[in-house]
Protein: DJ-1/PfpI domain-containing protein
Organism: Micromonospora arborensis
Amino acid sequence: MTHVVIPLYERFTALDVIGVYQPLALTPGIEVVLVAERPGPVRDDCGMVSLVAEIALEDVEATDVLVVPGGPGTVQALAGPLPGWIRRIHETTTFTTSVCSGSILLGAAGLLRGRRGTSHYRAAQELVRFGAEPTDQRVVEEPDARIITAAGVSSGIDMGLRLVELLTDRTTAEAIQLWMEYDPQPPFDSGHPSRATPEVLARAAAYDSAARVAHPGPPPPR
């Protein structure tokens, strides 16, 4: 059995977790466990969904795969036990991975210094402060460091399928993709800032600012 651990923290982004969880949890021979500082429900960034952590961070000694999600709560999580815990657990993993601003937590754990990494487009430059080289690739693999980072939110689905391939084989990964009927055909082509109009970029920035007001916390790291 291959073990996957996903740590939760207040105001994580739900799809950051579910996008990776779904393909991995569907794969025979893979077990996914949600953990948090304390067992119990942890609320997402929209405040309407909670996922239940089964185990406390301190009770996890090792895992084959670590998946660190992102979200507005990353800022608060930086000041908690998560970076140190990530650093410790990374010593035991086959793959340490992140989605969205979860890569900032990998950076704070000291895992991305001198490495390429990706994140949500509004957070990617924060990686520089941790000695990482930000890229705008959707999924970035650093094989010798056993690290994989995925960009914003939905990119976790892509990374999840890639992990299935790495942990099993391509046929299994393609079968999981088919079972999920993951066949992206979005109605718009504005899923990356390079293709979004100035109006769309401004509206997205306004939504981001509104979310920070609705869920106040310390300012993002600079």
User: Anything to note?
Assistant: Confidence is low (pLDDT under 50) at residues 213-222. The two ends are 41 Å apart (CA to CA). The chain is about 35% helix and 20% strand. Residues 2-180 form a domain with the Rossmann fold fold (CATH 3.40.50.880).
